[in-house]
Amino acid sequence: MILTVTPNPSLDRTYEVPALHRGEVIRATGERMDPGGKGVNVSRAVAAAGRRTVAVLPLGGAPGALVADLLHAQGIEVAPVPVTGATRSNIALAETDGILTKINAPGPELTAAERAHLLDAVRAQSRTADWIACCGSLPRGLAATWYADVVTRAHADGTRIALDTSGPALLEAVRARPDVVKPNAEELAQAVGRPLATIGDALDAAERLRALGARAVLASLGADGQLLVDDAGTWYGSAHVDTVRSNVGAGDASLAGFLIAGGNGPDALASAVAHGAAAVRLPGSVMPTPADLDPTAVTVTADVPVDRVLGEPAV
Ligand SMILES: Nc1ncnc2c1ncn2[C@@H]1O[C@H](COP(=O)(O)OP(=O)(O)OP(=O)(O)O)[C@@H](O)[C@H]1O
Ligand SMILES: [Mg+2]
């Protein structure tokens, strides 16, 4: 079982609109609702692979109840932590020309009691988990050290833990020695305070995160593929995609692919790359099923092309 923790989930409402015009009434031609949040995406990808997953998340108000309903409908077990504040609704405006404008709400502030319940819920579920995946930003009311506490508790219970977050929450958490962290290029550059121009720069930054405490680093570099750096070595994986439809959630699909395949070594990296490539071929944040994967398109090598220039340098 893969347990996911999404401290700041959302109800994602997408409106299809012809074009945006400030100050006018815009009539949507279509609308949809999805459960949102990075841990939620990882659970959706794990469920799409036919594996068991439990999503721990604070849920409040009518939007929170809708998020739970939408997750159940996708075969995802939910371990809700009831909170007084309403779960946030994030708005996406999808124009016909493919431009997406998003408005993300901050989400409710958790009380001291709710914070304690959230930690307890993670611990109660983690006993049967192969992995815990902690994903996304922290809501107001959770200290930057919150993920670090979850890592320490997971290790006390003998459970492995993966982390996909950014900024101070990432830097605090790596000190607690998480089993793997999955920054993208921008998050990696920010964490080390240096721009990344080449694969070699990304490798140096990943090594730096390991020096700070992360046991393994799975760095996702968009179209430039992924790097895995751990105690056993360094690998680079990539897969060419002809037609990119949406890169939203590709990193979450990658992390799910990595964990489903055991969560370490080159085979798990290959699975992460296959899931990332499949996710970008699918619309929106749709997560790939096994039928969407093309493992033959993935190459993994221990011979990291350090001099290769990144298509999108990270600052
Ligand atoms: N244009 C692309 N072509 C091929 N593969 C891609 C492309 N974009 C993303 N991928 C694959 O998906 C992986 C994850 O993408 P990315 O690094 O953009 O994640 P991310 O920024 O964490 O995404 P998110 O947080 O939205 O889930 C990449 O490492 C790569 O394997
Ligand atoms: Mg990401």
UniProtKB/TrEMBL annotation:
Keywords: ATP-binding, Kinase, Nucleotide-binding, Transferase. InterPro entries: 1-PFruKinase, PfkB_dom, Ribokinase-like, Tagatose/fructose_Pkinase. Residues 19-290 form the Carbohydrate kinase PfkB domain. It comes from the Bacteria. Its EC number is 2.7.1.56. It is an enzyme of class 2 (transferase). PANTHER family: 1-PHOSPHOFRUCTOKINASE, 1-PHOSPHOFRUCTOKINASE-RELATED. Belongs to the carbohydrate kinase PfkB family. This is 1-phosphofructokinase. It comes from Streptomyces nigra.
